[in-house]
Amino acid sequence: MQVPVRKNLKHFYTPFIITLGNIDNSVIIKGVIFMRKASSVCGLILAAGLSSRMGEFKPLMPFKGKTLIENTVDSLLSAGVDQVVVVLGYRGEDIESVLRLRYGKEIIYTRNHNYETTDMLASIKCGIEAMPHCRSFFLLPGDMPVVKKSTFAKLMNSRPAGRPAVLFPTLEGYRKHPPLIDSSFRDVILNFSGEGGLRQIWKQQEDCIIHVPVDDEGVWMDLDTREDYEVCISRFCPAEI
């Protein structure tokens, strides 16, 4: 039996005529079936850590008139991603309260409740589990606020047709963040339980990795320490010095 799907809520759902029994990517509201719209690209931001090497709470440190985490979110949204998932942990309520003042439904918040005892891969898994269906997603640490829009665009435009891939930006031959990860690797990441974390996963998937050279100092700017933060300010917003 076919069920006509209403055409309202079209911002979030795509209307279809669908056959009952084949409604995996759907939601039922008051007895009416709506098909979820599949995002082309999502963004996954990691912001669960303790900021122990910085000495201050990194996500909320000032940068370009906003906070670091806001700049990181803005970089993904300006690149045209459909949805951003932010993985929170330490002081997660503080980060979420700041972000909710500026952003709406384009941000999904999730928690790594074991942030003190787990590694980055655990936060990635939390984010992937909360992420809506999409073709691929960027993985970006929350302390990388100055990646260029052109870098995201070049990665998206370099996706190969017909095969899944993980695309890394490279600068001077070095593999950097943010990778653009095909959604077919979702279960590979979620099911990995060995040593070595994400690095080991990519070693096992080396044949699927594509390097994309970029001209972007922002892919170097991973702000782990106070010195990293000051260097980034001096290069990208010297007026704040």
Helix content estimate:
25-40%
Gross geometry: globular
Mind describing the biggest β-sheet?
Answer: 8 strands, mixed
What is the N-to-C succession of helices and strands?
EEEEEEEEHEHEHEHEEEHHEH
> So how many helices?
7
**Rg (C-alpha, Å):** 19 Å
Proportion of residues in β-strands: 25-35%
Strand elements, count: 15
Structural class: alpha/beta
Supply the key terms.
alpha/beta; 7 helices; globular; disordered N terminus; 241 residues; 3-stranded antiparallel β-sheet; 27% helix; 8-stranded mixed β-sheet
Describe the model.
With about 240 residues, the chain is an alpha/beta fold. Helices cover about 25% and strands about 25% of the residues. It has helices spanning about 70-80, 90-100, 120-130, 150-155, 185-190, 195-205, 225-235, and strands at about 1-5, 15, 15-20, 25-30, 30-35, 40-45, 60-65, 65, 85-90, 105-110, 135-140, 165-170, 175, 180, 210-215. The strands form 4 sheets. Strands 6, 9, 10, 11, 12, 13, 14 and 15 form an 8-stranded mixed beta sheet that branches. The chain has a 3-stranded antiparallel beta sheet with strand order 2-5-4, with no helix packed on it. Strands 1-3 form a two-stranded antiparallel ribbon. It is globular, with a radius of gyration of 19 Å.
